[in-house]
Amino acid sequence: MGKTITTRLPDNFVGIIKDIAEKEKVDLSTAIRKLLAEAIKEWKKEYAVEQYRKGEFSFGQTAKFAGISPWDLPDLFKQKKVLINYDEEELEADLKILK
Fold first, then answer.
1. Which of 2, 21, 52, 84 has the highest CB neighbour number within 10 Å of its CB?
2. pLDDT digits over 28-37, tens only?
């Protein structure tokens, strides 16, 4: 099971979340969890790409942290306007990580 967390939200956020819950035909808590899950997924992609851009993550580490397939990573890089820096040594390291 999960933990209960209490937070204060601006009125406009609450209104938007209520609208989303109504359109999705779910309760408010379900809508919040769904939106939060999507935001976390996007944050992980952004963070992973930034770490790759800084040279902190390899290609494989970026894919793994972002939670996407290495085959989908070039599309994400293209979307974020990131050049791929990849050599044979990185390939070997990434193959070990992905195993």
1. 52
2. 999 999 999 9
